[in-house]
Amino acid sequence: MNSWHIFVFSFNRGIFLKNCLDSIKQCGLNIDVTVIDDNSDDPATHKILNTVEMDYGFELIKAEKSKTLEKRLGGLYGNMNMALAISKKKEKDYMLFIQDDMQFVRKVEPEDLSIIEKVFDDFEDIQQIQSCFLKNLMVDRYKSLLSPLKENKCFVLDGNASDHGAFSAVGVFYVPRFEKINGSFVAGERENHKISLRNNVKLAQLKHPFMMWLPYSTTYQSKKLNLKHKIIETIAQCGFYPIDIMDDATYKNMIDNKQEKLPIAEHWLKVDGLSTYPTWCFSAGVINLFARGGLRRKIAKLLWKL
Hints:
The chain has helices at about 15-25, 45-50, 50-55, 75-90, 110-120, 140-145, 175-180, 190-200, 225-235, 250-255, 265-270, 285-290, 295-305; strands spanning about 5-10, 30-35, 60, 95-100, 100-105, 125-130, 145-150, 155, 170-175, 200-205, 210-215. The chain is an alpha/beta fold. It folds into three domains: about 1-105, Spore Coat Polysaccharide Biosynthesis Protein SpsA, Chain A, CATH 3.90.550.10; about 110-210, no CATH class; about 215-250 and about 260-305, no CATH class. Strand 7 and strand 8 (about 155) form a beta hairpin. It starts with a strand and ends with a helix.
């Protein structure tokens, strides 16, 4: 566990950040945690940031504005390079990236870490493992993209068939391999995906994930919301929907999973207020309306035509 490091990326989402940190504290092992804040200017977020070191025992650092790579997403990819530099300096082999609108959804067992380490040992062409649940909106696509790895503890994505199949901005990176092959992060998920494809490295998917984005989250596009985006989020009832920590019985069912179901979030996770919705949305924009169904789905289809 001393070879692991968790990095939380934060910007102006106080209530979301607190939920994320609480989940790490509740579910995580004895792993170093660093919060990299993208220079938040929201008082509510600063209130949470002030508790990071004292209440949680985590490290807090501010992003370096001079190393911002992408204005649309703040300094996310510059901050990821900062995390990479910290991991190298502290001689960490594994760095786990999680964003403030995400959380751990179950206790992380030592076996989870062992499975991840073994996959990296056994497959030299894998430099990242996705530790999030999958989305029901994309279940048919997953069936065509995912293939089981040896011992069936993970799946591997066909990166050539997906815009993001070889890279994700969250999950576990094997630091020595990433440094040797990709070297550093560039601005944009698609651009990092293209580099990974050129370097012939793959993204694996955990069969038993332990983290996820919060569904129907309010978002910060370009750090400010335009009127259209605000209206869409209001109609879609976007807000703060934390995920219940998985109980022991559900965890056991997921591990046993004799039907070999894919780890779809809506099948295994519970969220207050969303029990009647078979499909959730974890992205920004009109797709939130589509996922809600009914009249809102019709509005979404109309907006897509405009």
